[in-house]
Records
---
Amino acid sequence: MGVIYCGNCEGKVSDILDRCPHCCHPMTDQGSADLDRPVRIELTSKSIKLVTVTGAIMAVAGAAVAAANWHIDGSEKTKIGVVVAVAGVVVFLGARISAWWGHG
């Protein structure tokens, strides 16, 4: 693996890369078919990913608390666990819908 220089920005680039990581200038021949293919970039924000993970953790933790206390009739911990689990599912689904909505 060698290092070459970008013809556009003169940055150091590995010879195995198709594009310069600094300026995205193609590092292959201009006639290459690879340059004509579309590149899809997912732009889901970190805040949406954080909310998604938080909702999943809430759902799992709430379900675990509810399951651990299910044998006790009318236990407050069971009710709290169910509420947290349902809230976690709602938060998770809301974040997933938000991510989908932002990407069309």
Note: Residues 1 and 15 are 6 Å apart (CA to CA).
---
Amino acid sequence: MPHFPKPFFRASRGLWYVQIAEKQHNLGPDEDAAFRTYHELMAKPREKAVVGTQSLVAVVDAFLDYVQHHRAPATYRWYKDNVERFCNFIPSGRPGRSRRRSSRSA
């Protein structure tokens, strides 16, 4: 079952907190004000992590390096061929964007 953030009271500090995306937010000592702040935080759009192309390349290179040193040569070739095919499928090396294929025949 999915977890959703709920405010909690920390008696040792006398404060309300909520944990959103692995970060604890101090909502203050007043319960009513804490819940208003909580609703404001939940209404905000969450920031999305930006992953650059270089990080994809770094992960792929590290993975292939590991496979080359710890697996059979045939296994390395199989992964290398499939990873290259995957990387060639991604236009201009940007993950998350696929090529548009025209439905028109020329």
Note: The two ends are 50 Å apart (CA to CA).
